[in-house]
Design brief:
The chain is of the alpha/beta class. The protein is built from 7 helices and 7 strands. 35% of the residues lie in helices and 22% in strands. It has a 7-stranded mixed β-sheet with strand order 3-2-1-4-5-7-6, sandwiched between helices.
């Protein structure tokens, strides 16, 4: 007989207050400040990768940026948000949990801001904007080191077919998709595009 893991209570979310604040803000304003369902997935991926540097597109109010920064005691996160109000709110929320020294919230367009960040220096990239474009995925791939991990969310919101084809290109990524999310490991330096 096999061994079964005993189901335990769900772990306490140290950033549940930020998630609740984000959801309340979204309800009140009807804006695009959505949080990823559960921060443990991006946090676990970042911890498993022993990520030193992480880039995120789609900050909202900083919930997942905090989970990502908690991967190790020295992990840093560059997170990008296009909404100026959300940038200010994210900086406030991040400060309340003591991570302002390790999370930089950039205000601007995701693709333009990605282009300003160094190539090949990030261990993990997380896309949690509305829906990824080919340009955004390419920008994130460029920022990742070989062997770096991309977590791409919101894939059921209708990205172009070439985005999904690109994430499933075995020359570029080792990919596992589930639901609206894909986990992709950068396989090699892309010299074909």
């Amino acid at each position: 007989m096999g061994t079964f893991v005993k189901r335990t209570a769900r772990p306490i979310d140290p950033f549940a207050g930020i998630q609740a604040t984000t959801r309340e803000h979204q309800r009140q304003h009807g804006c695009g400040a959505y949080t990823y369902q559960d921060g443990t997935l991006p946090g676990t991926i970042a911890a498993a990768a022993s990520a030193r540097r992480i880039v995120e597109v789609g900050t909202a109010l900083g919930y997942t940026a905090c989970w990502l920064a908690a991967a190790t005691s020295t992990t840093t996160v560059d997170t990008i948000e296009s909404d100026a109000d959300h940038v200010l709110l994210a900086r406030e929320q991040i400060s309340t949990v003591g991570l302002a020294d390790r999370i930089t919230v950039h205000h601007g367009d995701g693709d333009d801001t990605l282009a300003s960040l160094p190539a090949g220096e990030f261990d993990v990239a997380f896309f949690d904007g509305f829906t990824p474009t080919t340009a955004t995925i390419t920008g994130l791939r460029t920022r990742l080191r070989v062997g770096g991990v991309l977590l791409a969310a919101n894939l059921t919101l209708g990205p172009a077919a070439e985005v999904l084809d690109g994430l499933n290109d075995p020359n570029l990524w080792l990919t596992h998709s589930f639901g609206e999310t894909a986990i992709c490991v950068k396989r090699s330096v892309d010299t074909t595009r």
